[in-house]
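Suppose a colleague, Dr. K., hands you the sequence of a protein chain of 138 amino acids and asks what its three-dimensional shape might be. Before reaching for any lab equipment, you can write down a predicted structure in token form. Begin with the sequence itself:
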Amino acid sequence: MVTEADRALRCDGLVVGHGGVPLLPPVTAAIRPGEFWAVIGRNGAGKSTWIRILLGLLPPVSGRVVREPPDLPLAYIPQRTTYDPIVPLQTETVVRMGLERDRSFLVPGFARRRQGEVRAAMEAAGCADVEDHCFRTS
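The predicted structure, expressed as tokens, is then:
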């Protein structure tokens, strides 16, 4: 019988990667019901691969994933690669976000510090005349 304290999704010495090539050092952890985890790192660091292995969608390079109990329910919100047209963004904001992929565009004063670079990028792309228009993909 599994007690509430024992319920967890565990990874024991879990190594994630592609084609047998590790992306991360071994990870040992227990994720318990009710916990929320944020997996952060650079592009290509292995975050999505780690999540897919935890869910059983991909095999690990080595180590193991244990669900205790085996039918432990899991929830997953995948990252989206599409733009949500309901969220209003100005074209200038989208360009600014592209210049700072680490989200420092959210830091107060970013717009003033980088405005020259944003303007130059928009001029190079031929879209400076629509900087205050609502962004759309078509």
